[in-house]
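Field reference: "sequence" (input) and "structure" (output). Example, ABC transporter ATP-binding protein:
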Amino acid sequence: MSRLEADVGVRRGSFVLDVAVTVEPGEVVAVLGSNGAGKSTLLGALAGLYPPDRGSVVLGGRALDGVPVHRRRVGLLSQQALLFPHLSARDNVAFGPRSSGAGRRAARETADRWLAMVDATALADRRPSELSGGQAQRIAIARALACEPDLLLLDEPFAALDVDVTPAVRSLLRRVVRVAGVTTLMVTHDVLDAVVLADRLVVLDTGRVVESGPTAEVLRRPRSAFAARIAGLDLVPGRSCSEGLRTAEGRVIGGTHPEPVDDGEPAVALFAPASVAVFADPPKGSPRTVLPVRLAAMEPHGELVRLRAGVPDGGPDWVDGLAADVTPAAVAELGVEPGDDVWFAVKAAEVEVHPAGR
């Protein structure tokens, strides 16, 4: 496993990228930002496609200044699988090891091992034209990792997939990246990609880093406009359990598991602020998860009012920043104001529990 240290400045026309980022060995870091923020330029600079005008890229102690693309030991997985159309799935995966000097037999053995890793052994002899989008992306994942890269770059790897296929491929990529232990930098617009795959987030705006930190922390307490906009969901960290999610202090948040999550595995519970009911007194006999909070702020949110939670006396830190969207009439009926203690309640059917970065 290799450590990435990059501090680069790249000028492309009138746009200037000026970014410093570090990815620890085996860590997965997600880069987020609006269109034009510089995400693709950053990946291009790391891959060697855009020579930096200043700074340097150091990977595993090797300075990559002037090192050509094919010698960087950097793998790239993009939106499109970009498989060689004239090669079978097995030969596509074997291409990287062969290019690195492996013999034909060794390369095919490596390819078969990675095809098994991505549950695609049955697809080994198919050409790309015979594969679905999800199958092709599985082969592309195997091909990217078969080269044993020191750094894996993921450029919106699920953007071109059907919505029904994405969860399975996302879960697969999470598993194989962890097994491979490869240092990974991922560009995405999807908050769920970041939640499931990334240990840390870096948010770019106009070519600069405006926010960074552990995934759950950034999404729970966003400090930049973009992070706040994509967060858009309430997030509670903990560990998966049969009922949903168990927090660090033992509270159970009822929820469903849209994708497999082992009991005890780090996870997050996600739910929309619009699904949260607010009570001035503890609700009696409710089948919902009920969370005591201290009302921190009341903000207009379209035709609704967003109630922001703060930490009540003796309460857990993770309630800070949780939100509930209610009607103005409901606010008037509650008769509350910032500083009051209230109760947020959410039904288990409205909560999804997903695996989380470490």
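Residues 235-355 form a domain with the OB fold (Dihydrolipoamide Acetyltransferase, E2P) fold (CATH 2.40.50.100).
The chain has two domains: 4-231, 235-355.
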